[in-house]
């Protein structure tokens, strides 16, 4: 997320990193879709098909970042309720 904020990666890069971080945990990969801006998808497919991509607006990026930060203590905690070690890693990732 730090690379995304610093514009060193784009949304597709974030998605690739999330899929790598949560490899072997398809429930967590699919749970992350709630944080993606409109027009982006994430799947558990092994092949790296690019998700539907549209030019995103600055407001979309801010909304995405705010959603992740605001929900990280609630929604993400529920998503990781059986994986406390991954919750700690995700908080570090943010």
Automatic annotation (TrEMBL):
It comes from the Eukaryota. It is found in: Nucleus. GO terms for cellular component: chromatin; histone deacetylase complex. Its main location: nucleus. GO terms for biological process: negative regulation of transcription by RNA polymerase II. Keywords: Nucleus, Repressor. The keyword Repressor applies. GO terms for molecular function: transcription corepressor activity. This is Uncharacterized protein. It comes from Papaver nudicaule (Iceland poppy).
